[in-house]
Design goal:
The structure holds 2 protein chains of 2 kinds. Chain A is an alpha/beta fold. Chain A folds into 2 domains: 167 residues, Rossmann fold; 65 residues, no CATH class. In chain A, β4 and β5 form a beta hairpin. Helices cover 27% and strands 17% of the residues of chain B. A 7-stranded mixed sheet of chain B has the order 1-9-8-5-4-2-3. A 3-stranded antiparallel sheet of chain B has the order 7-6-10. Chain B starts with 33 loop residues before the first helix and ends with a helix. The chains are: A alpha/beta, B alpha/beta. The complex binds adenosine-5'-triphosphate, magnesium ion and zinc ion. The site of zinc ion has 8 residues of chain B, from β12 and α7. The site of magnesium ion has 3 residues of chain A, from α1.
């Protein structure tokens, strides 16, 4: 098998008495979509933040494409975040600049990586608006004027414009209407397949995990209690907690 | 700076006539005590060593309000020597209240000569302009800076702006220029236009017109910037590259009103629009009063 794109071992992070991460290991291969499910407070967001360099673990290691991420300086880590990685937040307010136009939001990562041709930046922004199904004519509008679903799609465009290889998504459909969620999931699935992205997606939504993910990790109390291919985990859950999780979805 | 080797030629007659100062013995030379001046000089040396980087300093209370350029005054006080000749301009003019008061202040507390002539000055303290006459190696230009952080309006968290400088992560500044073009069709920033110093640090040039930005590039004179309220000093050493940010397809353009100066006919100086009556009459005149005066004299001499 080829080398894992992202590989973490023995991650631990405590907040006071809470063990948000307690010996977590994870591998993500190029082009692979991995879903993290688990109840509120189980450490999903914390894991994403640690893997993406937004937070530092108390212990453990993170390697990206063979490079020791935690040992690398902040400058190197920031470069990875700007070029190789993307992060889609649950709340678009955390992932968008609300005071900047839609086009400026998409262009920011291009400019941060040295693009200095205004016309080229606009062309890329227009193209990405189209790809996330927003009318390019709205390029100069503030994202404040966009619906929640559009804001999430804009956040995705802003993240993907520099063609990262690995994207972290923290409940990207949370807080949206069910019909809007379905459309967004379809869009994410299409883009991920088209671009061959590796994705680590946190979700409460077992159906979404089934739709998108090749593999599932189930977290509880800061630990990975079960992991495997999506169908195997959902159809034949081994851990009692996963069984409960799947059963509660079926019952609902 | 401290005139050690060669005293500047004594001011001679005319407008530029240096008003020689008699130092008030009640003050330490140049008002600040020696340890404060040493502290400021250390900050200046550090600033010169890292062009464009903002260095914190222990800004002191000055007998003038902050809006009057206490940062610039402290820098001037720290570098002034008895043989220096000081020029102070405000918006290009030597005769505004601010400029007149600061000159009078230094005549009193340092006994230095002052001048209105750019050519005669060894230290020029300025607010909002760079003189039109090219400065030379024996001169120091001291800017009064209200807001030293060029990223402040884009990123209000100070710790984060520091991180952005440390990482030379200036995409955000380009986003602002992008938004300008998207909204106005061109970069609408005409004052305080951000620059990259020595290809490394993003710097606020203080609220000078963008027209003056090219004068900062590889200037033979040392440029020092003092922000009193924000307690920051930064510097551009002589001959340092200073580049105005722009896009390849929207290159930086220094803008000036498309008129000759009504008084001296200059077509390449920065102009102020002056209302001449209350029925809409207006003329354009050089904002640099010394430059304009010199050109008018030269013209009169020829005629
Ligand atoms: N910055 C913090 N300070 C203190 N405690 C924190 C912090 N971040 C997370 N925690 C705690 O760590 C645990 C894991 O939190 P985390 O946000 O990772 O959970 P989650 O699985 O993302 O939950 P949710 O599904 O509600 O988003 C929780 O007990 C949380 O209260
Ligand atoms: Mg969470
Ligand atoms: Zn003139």
């Amino acid at each position: 098998m080829s080398e894992a794109l992202l590989s973490a071992r023995d991650l631990a992070l405590r907040f006071g008495r809470v063990a948000a991460l307690d010996g977590v290991a994870i591998d993500i291969w190029p082009g692979e979509v991995v879903a993290i499910v688990g109840e509120s407070g189980s450490g999903k967001t914390t894991l994403l933040r640690v893997l993406s360099g937004l937070a530092r673990p108390d212990a453990g290691s993170v390697h990206y494409a063979g490079q020791d991420v935690l040992a690398a300086g902040e400058a190197a880590r920031r470069r990875l975040m700007r070029t190789e990685w993307g992060f889609v937040h649950q709340n678009p307010r955390d992932g968008l600049r609300m005071g900047v136009s839609a086009g400026g939001n998409i262009g920011e990562r291009l400019m941060a990586t040295g693009h200095r041709h205004y016309g080229g930046i606009r062309a890329a922004a227009a193209e990405w608006l189209r790809r996330v199904e927003i009318d390019p004519a709205r390029m100069d509008e503030s994202p404040r004027k966009f619906s929640g679903g559009m804001q999430q799609r804009l956040q995705i465009a802003r993240t993907l414009v520099t063609q990262p290889r690995l994207v972290f998504m923290d409940e990207p459909t949370g807080g949206l209407d069910v019909s809007v969620q379905a459309r967004l999931l379809d869009l994410i699935r299409a883009l991920v397949a088209e671009l061959g992205l590796a994705v680590l997606i946190v979700t409460h939504d077992i159906a979404a995990a089934r739709l998108l993910a090749h593999r599932i990790l189930v977290m509880r109390h800061g630990r990975v209690v079960e992991e495997g291919l999506t169908d195997r985990v959902l159809d034949d859950p081994q851990h009692p907690y996963t069984q409960l999780l799947v059963a509660s979805v079926l019952a609902a | 700076m401290t005139g050690t080797t060669q005293a500047p030629s004594p001011p001679t007659g005319g407008r530029g006539s240096g008003e020689g100062g008699t130092r008030d013995p009640g003050y330490n030379f140049a008002y600040l005590d020696e340890s404060t001046k040493r502290m400021i000089r250390r900050a200046i040396l550090k600033a010169v060593a890292i062009p464009g980087h903002q260095v914190p300093f222990g800004s002191r209370e000055m007998p003038l309000p902050y809006g009057w350029g206490t940062g610039g005054i402290q820098v001037t006080a720290a570098i002034l020597g008895p043989a220096d000749v000081l020029k102070v301009i405000d918006q290009g003019a030597d005769d505004t209240t601010n400029a007149v008061s600061i000159r009078a202040f230094f005549r009193r507390v340092a006994g230095v000569a002052t001048t209105e002539r750019t050519a005669e000055a060894t230290v020029i303290q300025t607010r909002h302009r760079i003189p039109e006459r090219a400065l030379h190696e024996d001169q120091v230009l001291v800017y009064q800076v209200p807001i030293p952080e060029p990223l402040m309006r884009l990123e209000p968290r100070i710790a984060e702006t520091k991180r952005l400088h440390a990482m030379a992560d200036y995409g955000l500044m380009h986003v602002k220029l992008y938004e300008d073009i998207a909204r106005h069709g061109h970069i609408a920033t005409s004052y305080n236009y951000p620059v990259m110093v020595n290809g490394r640090y993003l710097m606020s040039p203080s609220p000078i017109p963008a027209f003056d930005n090219p004068k900062m590039d590889r200037m033979p004179a040392l440029q020092l910037f003092g922000a009193g309220r924000e307690k920051r000093i930064y510097a551009v050493p002589p001959y340092t590259p200073v580049r105005s940010l722009d896009f390849e397809d929207h290159p930086f353009r220094p803008i000036r009103a498309q008129h000759p100066c009504t008084l001296c006919g200059s077509t390449d100086s920065y102009l102020d629009e002056v209302l001449t009556d209350d029925v809409g009459g207006r003329i354009f005149v050089c904002s640099d009063t010394d430059w304009c005066g010199e050109r008018q004299q030269a013209k009169a001499a020829v005629e």
